[in-house]
């Protein structure tokens, strides 16, 4: 069968592919510790599971409105009001099959053929592919570790052309855990408003903040809210990655267009999962607080251990559950007797010889980095880092 040019242009999500490979190795009996995929290791809280069971028993198993059930959209509006001081009406909310799908829908309706889309790097793996699939051109804005891996308003201004239509912002960031301050967002917003650049603000890690505070981009002011699609979801905060519920908020016409698009692709997010997400947002938040305390402990341990490893330099990320060390000193050397030509090769050596799975920086548009997810137990983190230290003894 002839594949479309579009199909030929994309590969699998590198994070999901690594996760599949790691899980396959583990199921073959290979003892691999995964710092790979970004997925909470905690179970979905019982009260959320219970809401889904109640939904099934009540026969809530049919199509829903494409944009989501009214009570969940109301709860999302209440969440925006309470957490971000943002007023949205239910007609400004779209519930999708994960935040990924909300972002996909937003890119499809905001990006025309040939449009330039600004993406700060390191970026989450799927942003450039989504832009390519919409016929747009990703314009990658690089950042540096000494600036905390954040772009500035000047960086954005320098890359604006008459074709720039969109900026994809992610705070807290995957893969660096960086958080933009209110002042930084205000400066970025000024440039976007001036040039009429729409913004997709991916805030999926909003609840996983250990220092500082999360500022929602749209909350900077009414003009900013008018150019912003805010994306969030329940995957990370409530350990619900498999339930596939994310959402978007923004101007009514854009949300309507996204809903129309979704109505021709997935129809609606799963009815049962929508009820579970409603419980996640409106029910007890204690499991989230407990998870956050545990993540912070793991982060602190991981950062201090990684910074002791030869060739590793990493920041203490204030949010999300990733550490993104600079390992460029290791590139060009040998490890386990093998030449480390780039971070892909380094990640392969670590998988083969240390039996730890990490994602190479190349997946996020940088070189000389590795991403470690600490969404795994403290015990495994300790053991995995011991393995890493052991292999690094062979660094020459
Ligand atoms: N945005 C970022 C930055 C992410 O890391 C992820 C990964 N899960 C998503 C969006 C998508 O999340 P979801 O599971 O809700 O699709
Ligand atoms: N966002 C997670 C990660 O970066 C899950 C994988 C994915 O959706 O790509 O690992």
Task: Summarize the structure in words.
This protein has 396 residues and is an alpha/beta fold. It folds into two domains: 145 residues, Alpha-Beta Complex (Aspartate Aminotransferase, domain 1), CATH 3.90.1150.10; 220 residues, 3-Layer(aba) Sandwich (Aspartate Aminotransferase, domain 2). It has 14 helices and 14 strands. The strands form four sheets. A seven-stranded mixed beta sheet has the order 2-8-7-6-5-3-4, with helices on both faces. It has a three-stranded antiparallel beta sheet with strand order 9-14-13. It has a two-stranded parallel sheet with strand order 1-12. Strand 5, helix 8 and strand 6 form a beta-alpha-beta unit. Helix 3 packs antiparallel against helix 11, helix 5 packs across helix 10 and helix 7 packs parallel to helix 8. The model has no long low-confidence stretch (mean pLDDT 96). It binds 4'-deoxy-4'-aminopyridoxal-5'-phosphate and glutamic acid.
């Amino acid at each position: 069968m002839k594949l479309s040019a579009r199909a030929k242009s994309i590969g699998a999500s590198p994070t999901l592919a690594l996760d599949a490979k790691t899980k396959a190795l583990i199921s073959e009996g290979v003892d691999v510790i995964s710092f790979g995929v970004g997925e909470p290791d905690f179970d979905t809280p019982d009260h959320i599971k219970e809401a889904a069971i109640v939904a099934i028993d009540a026969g809530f198993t049919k199509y829903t409105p494409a944009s989501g059930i009214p009570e969940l959209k109301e709860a999302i509006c209440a969440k925006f009001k309470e957490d971000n001081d943002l007023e949205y009406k239910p007609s400004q909310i779209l519930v999708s099959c994960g935040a990924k799908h909300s972002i996909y829908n937003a890119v499809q309706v905001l990006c025309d053929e040939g449009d330039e889309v600004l993406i700060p790097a390191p970026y989450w793996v799927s942003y450039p592919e989504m832009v390519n699939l919409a016929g747009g051109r990703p314009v990658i804005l690089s950042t540096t570790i000494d600036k905390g891996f954040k772009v500035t308003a000047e960086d954005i201004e320098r890359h604006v052309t008459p074709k720039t239509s969109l900026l994809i912002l992610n705070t807290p960031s995957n893969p660096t855990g960086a958080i933009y301050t209110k002042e930084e967002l205000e400066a970025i917003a000024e440039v976007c408003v001036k040039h009429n650049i729409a913004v997709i603000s991916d805030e999926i890690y909003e609840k996983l903040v250990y220092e500082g505070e999360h500022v929602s981009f749209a909350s900077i002011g009414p003009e900013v809210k008018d150019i912003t699609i805010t994306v969030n979801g329940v995957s990370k905060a409530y350990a619900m990655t498999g339930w596939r519920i994310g959402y978007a908020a923004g101007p009514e016409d854009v949300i309507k267009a996204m809903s129309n698009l979704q109505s021709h692709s997935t129809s609606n997010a799963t009815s049962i999962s929508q009820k579970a997400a409603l419980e996640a947002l409106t029910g007890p938040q204690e499991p989230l607080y407990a998870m956050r305390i545990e993540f912070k402990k793991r982060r602190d341990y991981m950062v201090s251990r990684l910074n002791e490893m030869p060739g590793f330099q990493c920041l203490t990320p204030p949010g999300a559950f990733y550490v993104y060390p600079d390992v460029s000193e290791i590139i060009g050397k040998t490890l386990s007797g093998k030449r480390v030509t780039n971070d892909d090769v380094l990640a392969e050596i670590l998988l083969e010889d240390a039996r730890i799975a990490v994602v190479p920086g190349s997946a996020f548009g940088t070189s000389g980095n590795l991403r470690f997810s600490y969404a795994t137990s403290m015990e495994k983190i300790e053991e995995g880092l011991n393995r890493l230290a052991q292999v690094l003894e062979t660094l020459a």
